Amino acid sequence: MTKAHNPDSTAGLGKYLVSGPPFLFLLLMFAAPAVITVIASFSYPGEFGGLAPLITSDPNTLHGVTLETYQFFFSDFIYIEIFIKSILMASCTTLICLSLAYPLALLIARSPSRRRDILVLLVILPFASNFLIRIYAWMIVLGPQSALSLLINGMLKLFGLAPVHLLFSSFAVLIALVYVHLPFMVLPLYTNLEKHDPNLLDAAQDLGANAWQRFWRVTFPLSLPGVFAGTALVFIPALGMFAIPEILGGTGDMLIGNLIKEQYLVTRDWPFGATLSIMLTIAVLLIAWLTAKLGARRGSYV
Amino acid sequence: MAQLEIRNVTRRFGDFVAVDNVSLNIEAGEFFTLLGPSGCGKTTLLRMIAGFDVPDSGQILLDGKDLADTPPEKRPIHTVFQSYALFPHLTVARNITFSLKMARCAHSEISARLQQSLDQMRLAGQADKYPNELSGGQKQRVALARALINRPRLLLLDESLAALDAKLREEVQVELINLQRDVGITFVFVTHAQTEALALSHRIAVMNLGRLEQVDEPSKLYGFPRNRFVADFIGHINQLDARVLESAHSHLHLSVAGAGDIIAPPLISAAPGQNGTFSIRPEQVRIGVHNELVELKNHFSGMVQSVLYQGDVSVYRVKFADGVTIEALLPNSAPGRAQLFEVGDMVKVGWRHDAGIFFDD
Ligand SMILES: Nc1ncnc2c1ncn2[C@@H]1O[C@H](COP(=O)(O)OP(=O)(O)O)[C@@H](O)[C@H]1O
Ligand SMILES: [Mg+2]
């Protein structure tokens, strides 16, 4: 008797074949650098950048593992202050994105299906041009001679107020952060809202809910998975962003991203850069964990 | 005064007339059914009663008051949707009490009414479950409980049993009749299934192409359909081409193509020479050997062409000597029934002189 063909074993093999390459890619591009960063954060800096060796034959050179960089991080409040400021900035960005994106996503989701595709296309259209070019464009829009600046300062003058500088300010950074991340909030929200059963709104109205109640009791709670997805997609990149503050921010608008970049490229203190990166990752994971705990209670029906 | 009055209501979508000049009176406490083939405008009419759609012309009055300016959320009318439309993010308890929350009822009253509703609908123990954890029958009961908890004047049910499997549907039909009797709320039930309509309703409105064909009690609708459409849509019926030979006060004398001359119940409007259709229900047609049927005015000879055994009954298709085929339905357990016929048997077929209806075309 021949052995019966077992479909499970080939399916299992196929699974490994298909998931193998992405697994290897992630191992190489994500796990390995993460391990290196952790090791770097416990190392001494090298003389001209890079890291001091962990083991060496020459006892006079700096080597081995140390907690020095972590002590350094907590010794000066300025680093924690930059962290707090960055988290505030990312939070503001997320909140503004959410309040702008929600009505937009709702509008798109409730449009006739043909117009929907065009509107979604418009939302992702900015991706067609380079990220840096779009940030430099804001330099022009917010510059002192721009129509926007002239208009605002003209108005302020009418009321007898001093003119303001839009460019190189936290305001400019916030505007650009919102601008860049808005599509990442719109798309998950739209994807969620588009799936809502319109009968549910009819049912709510039938049972006596007015437009306000229909939104807060049906649409919004059902859209929470989309809200959480969009929040994660905006908050996390906004927290680590360094290009925008560098181009549009003033001297006092340094965020964590800039600080980390500076350690690697200017100060050439790789261990401290690694420490800052790890603290950032811990902060993000902490916030994600809190959000997930919040979402778990609401999202159990999904 | 009728509780719900629908006066000359018309609804168009572009050039298409979905509801065509419909007038209806529905009495308080009635179990009223809108019956018609898919696409005949039942849902559209129901949505106008609920307020989700607006008539192009005509009026809808509840307790004598025009509803035109009342939005759906202000109408004392609730709907049980075909898909149930239960809120997936709310527990059974919160689904059921939704309307009470919207009406800002006191907390103590809400929980008292919830308890009562859970008991009535046999949902005790399900209160904290989410809709996706319920069976089809339970979902249906939650939808009913949710729509009934604040005692609407009118309950609309759109194909509410269609999603249930056949066995469960029969059970739920009985429950629905009892529930309607117990709560005393007017039900307007929409279905395309005629057996369901006959079983449930006090009165039925048969709709076709946006128009009302007939509004009547189930037995009247079945026994005395007003036209060919109703006769054909409700139950099974034999339709035979016929011509009027003589129209008397007491009877009609018809010539049926492929069969012969028959006597039928009178129709005032029929005149000699007129063409039309003679319709007769299969259960009114009798089959037998010659002797038992001679006393019937209408009787013919034929051959059994097919037998459809259905357990309780058998449906025989008998072909007459002159060519026409007729269906006869016989219970298999009739007392004294000695013989079941088989394909190829020569039989006598007959029906009473007062059976069947003639429809002029
Ligand atoms: N919003 C609408 N726009 C265009 N046509 C519609 C609309 N709603 C219903 N119809 C049409 O009206 C007819 C009646 O629909 P409906 O009331 O849903 O029928 P039923 O419930 O009896 O199956 C159908 O032919 C349907 O295509
Ligand atoms: Mg329908």
Brief summary of the model shown:
The complex is a heterodimer of chains A (about 300) and B (about 350). Chain A is mainly alpha-helical.
Characterization of the model:
The complex is a heterodimer of chains A (302) and B (361). Chain A has 302 residues and is an all-alpha fold. Chain A has a single domain (71-301), classed as MetI-like fold. Chain A is 73% helix and 0% strand. Chain A is globular. The two termini of chain A are 48 Å apart. The mean pLDDT of chain A is 89. Chain B is α+β, with helices and mostly antiparallel strands. Chain B has 2 domains: 4-232, Rossmann fold, CATH 3.40.50.300; 236-360, Nucleic acid-binding proteins (OB fold (Dihydrolipoamide Acetyltransferase, E2P)). In chain B, 24% of the residues lie in helices and 35% in strands. Chain B has 10 helices and 20 strands. In chain B, strand 11 and strand 12 form a beta hairpin. Chain B starts with a strand and ends with a strand. Chain A binds chain B through residues 197, 199-200, 202-210, 213, 217-218, 221-222, 298, 300-301, and chain B through 50, 52, 71-74, 77-79, 81, 83, 85-89, 98-99, 102-103, 130-132, 146-147, 150. The structure holds adenosine-5'-diphosphate and magnesium ion (MG).
Query: Which spans of chain B have pLDDT < 50 for at least 5 consecutive residues?
Result: none
Whole-number tally of structural domains of chain B? 2
In terms of DSSP E residues, the strand content of chain A is under 5%
Shape of chain A: globular
CATH-level-2 architecture of the largest domain in chain B: 3-Layer(aba) Sandwich
Quaternary class: heterodimer
Most extensive chain contact? A-B, 20 and 26 residues
Helix content of chain A: over 70%
Q: SSE order of chain A in H/E notation?
A: HHHHHHHHHHHH
The major beta sheet of chain A can be summarized as:
none
Q: Might you state the CATH topology name of chain A?
A: MetI-like fold
Q: Indicate the CATH topology of the largest domain in chain B.
A: Rossmann fold
State the helix count of chain A: 12
Integer-rounded radius of gyration of chain A: 25 Å
Kindly estimate the percentage of residues of chain B that lie in beta strands according to DSSP.
35-45%
Number of strands of chain A: 0
The CATH C-level class name of the largest domain in chain B: Alpha Beta
H and E order of chain B: EEEHEEEHHHHEHEHEEHHEEEEEHEEEEE
What is the terminal-to-terminal distance of chain A? 48 Å
Report the mean per-residue pLDDT of chain B as an integer: 92
